[in-house]
Amino acid sequence: MTSFEAVADQLDHLAVEVPSWAYGNSGTRFKVFGSPGTPRTVEEKIADAAAVHRFTGLAPTVALHIPWDLVDDFGKLKAYADDQGVALGTINSNTFQDDDYKLGSLTHADPKIRQKAVDHNLACIDVMDQTGSRDLKIWLADGTNYPGQGDIRARQDWLAEGLRTIYDRLGGDQRMVLEYKFFEPAFYHTDVPDWGTSYAHVSALGPKAFVCLDTGHHAPGTNIEFIVAQLLRLGRLGSFDFNSRFYADDDLIVGAADPFQLFRILVEVVRGGGYGEGSQTALMLDQCHNIEKKIPGQIRSVLNVQEMLTRALLLDTAALDAARTDGDVLLANEIYMDAFYTDVRRDLAGWREQRGLPADPMRAFLASGYQDDIEAARVGGTQAGWN
Length: 387
Ligand code: LRH
Ligand code: MN
Ligand code: MN
Prior knowledge:
Number of domains: 1
GO molecular function, one term: L-rhamnose isomerase activity
Order of helices and strands: HEHEHEHEEHEEHEHEHEHHHHHH
Bound molecules: 6-deoxy-beta-L-fructofuranose, manganese (II) ion
Keywords: Isomerase, Manganese, Metal-binding
Strand content: 5-15%
Number of strands: 10
EC number: 5.3.1.14
Number of helices: 14
CATH topology: TIM Barrel
Protein name: L-rhamnose isomerase
Radius of gyration: 21 Å
Helix content: 40-55%
Structural class: alpha/beta
Oligomer: single chain
Largest sheet: 8 strands, parallel, barrel
């Protein structure tokens, strides 16, 4: 098997974008639990994200959701983030929390509502101009609950039109990523339910449009790593929303429910050029911490990605190729599983120390007093929305 030393330098490229909403209170439709120390402002969410980066070295950017993270002056927010040691990342548009969007946003039958949804996305690009963000992420809650409710074909055409207007407004270095989800909040049909629909739209738009793959947005049993391989092959895997799930869109800590699936996904990411210099694929978290503390939850998440990426890099691809060429099914599987079963935690602790990071970021954070300080200082946190 490949040695840790042989892959150590490749780990320097790892950057996991964290979502601002992970630091706010969230919950299920049954209850949102408050938690001490919850950020009251966008700045406090960014400060918490910056703490995750300080202790791990893995999370240099933070994604914003508009209007959850609306501020008067995004230039000032960018400067604040810079001071904290992080940059502002993906801007997520939000056309799912306004009464006007009850029957759809970019796919609404009423052209005035469609225009409103387009205008919101254009306003998000204005935000990107100020924050220096590269990516606009669009996820639509659009869909219907009952057969016959909507013209599913016309809605695709309206969607294509709206996306075109938004796409044409992107600056030279800006990109659009279109996220798909197979159900929820709509239960009969969803307008962007799968990677194929997202791919059809983004490839019609042009080279600056990509698919966003949220790992929680597939039917149980879906082979997600196959989708990863295919989208990388097609040059359209723009980003991941990482999280893990047992049942639906659970938004639990990535790698918690099925570490082996995360490994399989990251093997295909590495195999397909989705990691490292020149990669077009952004690795992001899209999670909520409903019952656990949020900053440690985020620390655990980025460490899980680092651990599984390391194991994926350890895969002996030369030996694997040889076994495959020989048609040796069991040997190929054994080589693959060897990489997955390798415990890299001790090696990673040494890797961190060599880079001036705490060997154990979680323990270092817990000992730092940061959590106590925010719990004492912040009273009355905001709700951050939900996934
Ligand atoms: C939808 C989703 C999408 C939203 C986020 C809050 O389920 O995954 O990415 O922006 O949750
Ligand atoms: Mn998502
Ligand atoms: Mn989701």
